[in-house]
């Protein structure tokens, strides 16, 4: 098992932390389920042996999945941003998240079925938006604003004018 991280992202789940961690591990590189912690005794909302915490790593980022119940729901204030190299990689991650009960949003954003937000961002988009030629950046930005999943070819075409 890898060394415990000094700082981790804690994500609240309604009983599905292990399922989510295993999905992430099957979907993304450098992603592992590191430890599943079960309740050592009964507690007010559960029983001995229930999964209470899952330690996992998402693309090198240490995370803790806490099965805290339905009281807290995720929102877009937190998201994982995944830099992709091409359309195939963009499609693979987007389709995995959305196709597993998730939902599409705008400008490269989507949510997985547990409510965690993801930005699936081709590197060409990041490069285009920071282009020193502001007209090029504007065309890429305006193209992005019309998209759900990012279309790499359309961003490249917008950059060319």
Description:
By secondary structure, this protein is of the alpha/beta class. It folds into two domains: about 1-70, 2,3-Dihydroxybiphenyl 1,2-Dioxygenase, domain 1 (Roll); about 75-160, 2,3-Dihydroxybiphenyl 1,2-Dioxygenase, domain 1 (Roll). It contains five helices and eight strands. The protein has a four-stranded mixed β-sheet, covered by helices on one side. Helix 4 (about 135-145) runs antiparallel to helix 5 (about 150-160). It is elongated, with a radius of gyration of 18 Å. The model has no long low-confidence stretch (mean pLDDT about 95).
Shape: elongated
- What name does CATH use for the topology of the largest domain? 2,3-Dihydroxybiphenyl 1,2-Dioxygenase, domain 1
Structural class: alpha/beta
Oligomer: single chain
Number of strands: 8
CATH class of the largest domain, named Alpha Beta
Total helices: the number is: 5
CA-CA gap between termini:
50 Å
CATH architecture verdict of the largest domain: Roll
Helix content: 25-40%
How many individual domains? 2
Q: Unreliable segments (pLDDT under 50, ≥5 consecutive)? A: none
Gyration radius, to the nearest Å?
Answer: 18 Å
The strands making up the biggest β-sheet line up spatially as: 1-4-3-2
